[in-house]
Input
Amino acid sequence: MANTELRLFRYFVALCEEQNFSRAAERLAITPPTLTHQIQKLEKGLNVRLLIRRTRMKIQLTEAGARFLESARDVLQRADEAEKTARKAARGEIGRLEIGYMISTAYSGLLQRLIGNFQKTYPAIDITLRQFSTVNLIAAILSNEVDAGFARVPNQYPSGLSGFPIYRAQVILALPSNNPLARKRGPIHPTALSDETFVSTSIGYDFAFKRHVESLAALGGFTPKIVKRAEDLTTVLTYVSAGYGIAAISQEMAKCDVPNVIYKKIDSSAVPEVVYSFIYRTHETSPASKVFIGTVRAHALKSEPAKRNG
Output
């Protein structure tokens, strides 16, 4: 509806509520003659008589006027709601977000804490969570399939993406339960792993992120024998469960209750770490996404600056 029509609706409703031209004009910050002219304009446009003037500027609604008053109030309420909705959307207070994550961030509790707190503050923003491997998550953000996500810190952010570290965890070992090392008490020193076979993530994944198996091998002074690779950590642990070898994983994955898998800490003063980051598009324009980025940024690890590319 055009602004002029809405204005006439407001004039008519104010007049009906005040039941007096002078009081209604004062409320609307216009003169009584102007109000009279605008009501006449409304009646002329509708080709309907809406009210009957009584003495001393008092008014009485016709049957058509009474019906029109109900509809006018409804129109004005809807217009006000539309304005409020538009302003909230512009401020990022309402909307929809698709957030990606890798499974280990869910086991860490990080995802639940950040998403849960955000939802309490911005209940009108609907969040849909989607699980990805880190490599696929980065591709999904770049292609606008999802808005942002939580994943391992890459060696370098692709052009168009930025991110900052949000959580770190130590690397631990996942061993088949029938492996002799699984039955030993206490942490396992890297030198004890020299004759073991390993299960790791895909070669592409390793190139993009820190190679934790290689880090352990360097600490133990041996060359690792990697017999299986997988695109995600759940499959890595499944290979371990089946007896293919040992895996180096982040410690929160120990909460993943896979049969026949034993988790052990590493006996070293230089245990490798897994660092997780929040990744988003560098030139994001969505108000809801900007609000989410700002909220998550408040929880960034303070010791590491944000990284940016593009």
